[in-house]
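I would like you to sit down with the pair of lines that follows and say whether tokens and residues agree.
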Amino acid sequence: MDGKLSGNIVLENREKLYLYGVTDSECFDDTAAAVITNLGRIVITGKNLHLAKLSLETEEAVVEGLISSVSYVEKREAF
């Protein structure tokens, strides 16, 4: 690795979101979630969201439900 931080986001059919480079889960409910990644804080909004997987060891998370938005945010914004 060349010292650069990495992270990937894969969204399948607005129903399953794969996040790579996750270092922490900040908050989560059925309409919104916030996770900390190597590249910044990500806020996910939607309906019937649930955290299907969270592994800080492998830096992976999977969110399932109807995904409305995925955004990088600089500050701790209320969602």
